[in-house]
Design a protein that fits this description.
The protein has 319 residues and is an all-alpha fold. It has one domain. 79% of the residues lie in helices and 0% in strands. The protein has 13 helices and no strands. It is globular, with a radius of gyration of 21 Å.
Length: 319
């Protein structure tokens, strides 16, 4: 087995190991006790918010698809989003959600648009996350140094680099020029025509840059709804910190969770949240319990619906 393959297999274990360590260190019985004493009024609110979250999450790539002239009903897009969320949940950095591109082939006759739809959505998703982290990092820097000024400037640098590279590759002629070497040297001769068709399909009916500001704004709304769910989960177990505290901490933990050393950020996210919420005097057990419950509401419960949808679709294909 090659070194690269060994690293890829071992990396996800790091986050899971951190998660198990925290589970043992914090005492699982205390965690169950926190969950037993939930305020179910707040939990009901989280279920409503979770439904709104998936609607908004679907809408943000649905409107990109419409601009690409992909004829997909919103109902079908919503189902695909639930399935993609499931695959994202069980893979590092949610990369499994690219399965959405494969499902979109049915509606536009090629995979290129599906991949570009996913790529645009993913870049805007990350960009809006960086924006929130930087914005609330600066807002809360003076009162509570949740993140150091050096890290904030580093994040600004990464954010601007991400935007720059995205703008360069968003232009078909720039991409063609930059990828010409890869095309000539690394694409086999028999696959060159197929690669050219995929490249052209990727850029076909691509939305104008001005339109992306709308999608960026919808992404911000999506993140705020996501963090509102976690906020109400926190209230349900007695974490009474202001919503602003959650907005200063959760984008940071989400960014850390994007590091592909675990499945869906498991372990690394919890460690970051415990460290940062600790600055506000919030117990580690409560933070860990909040994280687990949030995962159940945002990921695990929708995963059951996703499995049903996957089974129904496969059954329909086999008939």
């Amino acid at each position: 087995m090659k070194f690269g393959q060994i690293v890829r297999r071992l990396l996800p274990i790091i986050g899971i190991s951190i998660f198990i360590y925290l589970l043992i260190k914090l005492d699982i019985t205390k965690i169950f006790r926190e969950i037993e004493n939930l305020n179910w009024d707040y939990i009901f609110i989280t279920f409503v918010l979770a439904l709104i979250f998936f609607i908004v999450q679907t809408f943000k790539w649905f409107i990109i698809a419409k601009k690409q002239k992909v004829k997909i009903p919103f109902k079908d897009a919503f189902k695909i989003d639930i399935i993609a969320n499931f695959y994202g949940f069980i893979t590092p950095a949610k990369l499994g959600s690219i399965i959405r591109a494969d499902y979109l082939r049915k509606y536009e006759g090629g995979k290129g648009k599906g991949i570009s739809n996913f790529a645009i959505d993913k870049v805007l998703d990350l960009s809006s996350l960086f924006f929130l982290t930087i914005l609330f990092g600066f807002i809360f820097y003076q009162s509570k140094k949740v993140i150091s000024l050096n890290y904030l400037f580093l994040l600004i640098g990464i954010f601007l680099t991400l935007i720059l590279f995205s703008l360069i590759f968003y232009k078909k002629e720039y991409s063609r020029f930059l990828l010409r070497f890869v095309y000539k040297r690394f694409i086999p001769e028999k696959a060159k025509e197929k690669a050219k068709l995929a490249f052209d399909s990727f850029y076909e009916n691509i939305p104008p840059i001005s339109f992306l500001f709308l999608v960026f704004f919808v992404n911000l709304i999506s993140w705020v709804i996501n963090y509102s769910i976690i906020y109400y989960v926190g209230l349900s177990i007695g974490i009474n910190a202001p919503f602003g505290v959650f907005l200063s901490i959760l984008p940071i933990s989400t960014l850390v969770a994007q590091i592909p050393i675990t499945i869906n950020g498991l372990g690394t996210r919890e460690l970051t949240m415990i460290s940062l919420f600790g600055l506000f005097g919030i117990e580690a057990v409560k933070v860990f319990s909040m994280s687990i419950l949030s995962i159940v509401i945002i990921n695990v419960i929708p995963a059951f619906f996703a499995i049903i949808l996957i089974f129904v679709r496969k059954r329909g294909q086999n008939q």
